[in-house]
Amino acid sequence: MSEEKTKRTDVNSLGEFGLIDHLTRMAVPNNPSTIKGVGDDAAVIDNGDKVTVVSTDLLVEGIHFDMMYTPLKHLGYKAIVVNLSDIYAMNAVPKQITVSIAISNRFSVEALEELYEGIYTACKQYKVDLVGGDTTSSLKGLFISVTAIGEGEKEKITYRNTAKIGDLICITGNLGAAYLGLQLLEREKQIYLENPNIQPDLEDQQYLMERQLKPEARKDMIEMFAKNQLVPTSMIDISDGLSSEIYHICKQSGVGAVIEESGVPIHPDAQMMALQFQLDPVTCALSGGEDYELLFTIDPNDVEKVKYLPDIYIAGEIVDKKEGVKLHTKGGNIHDLPAQGWVHFDPNK
Ligand code: ADP
Ligand code: MG
After folding, report:
1. What's the fold here for domain 168-336?
2. Dist. CA 291 → ligand 2 center (Å)
3. 271: three-class secondary structure by DSSP
């Protein structure tokens, strides 16, 4: 055997994004209809008058969800929503989905019906059609892979690599709540495992629970952009935390950014829960994940188009690449923003 073949590199040494870059470096398009391949929230395919956008995600039991506290109906709903979020992040409208599942014999027909109840609820809510998928068995655990297909107008598709110096950075909704919802669920799980007689106390934390277990994608924002004739200069959905997403935009656009800490929206419930966990609420907003909000940039001439829109916050500015990606704190300090989001390759799993 040649030395080349015996070489073994640990996947953790590259990290998730490094590994994707490494594996996809040879994915050069052969077809002129491939407008955008790997590297954005969704691929973009020329389709005559319109473009088709395609995004896919795989959810793995024990990595992305814990069956101990995830109701199957919510899981079905969330699996769809997280994919639709990637389509909206392209400023496109999702139309169809396919759903593939791998199931161990632990799951009954009734349990899978529940999963599909959630899937159909999301289809109805977001007006998308389930048009196919695949079903197979797994040795252990549940796997759900969803592909979402959407439609957009070529000139209005928003990429990650088109932010310009001077653009304003905008964030929808609020950040960190889903992460704190997860911390809360994990805490209650530990308490339950130690003493099954203690019932989880989550009554007052409805909002944080919902943000984690039943997130929504920002369909409303895309509709508002269209109504206000706003086309962001770049956009990404916030699935891995603000730091990680602004880093993607900056890296791909060849620019830097300054985020104003005071402009990062945090829900009061998230603020309170962070303090209970002795976590910094801003760190939760920057590095927590699964908010499924939108991070986008706009030309400063378009500021009037977002200024009076509800639930959009201007949180910074795109700057020259050599200025890096920075956080301007409320106290007046400037820090480098860490680029990491979720680490999926946990060696203990
Ligand atoms: P998102 O968080 O928006 O779902 P990802 O970080 O998962 O995006 O993926 C970034 C890009 O890399 C996307 O264009 C995605 O399609 C592509 N990608 C991820 N994994 C693979 C893979 N194993 N093979 C080919 N492309 C991949
Ligand atoms: Mg995305």
Report:
1. Phosphoribosyl-aminoimidazole Synthetase; Chain A, domain 2 (3.90.650)
2. 11
3. helix
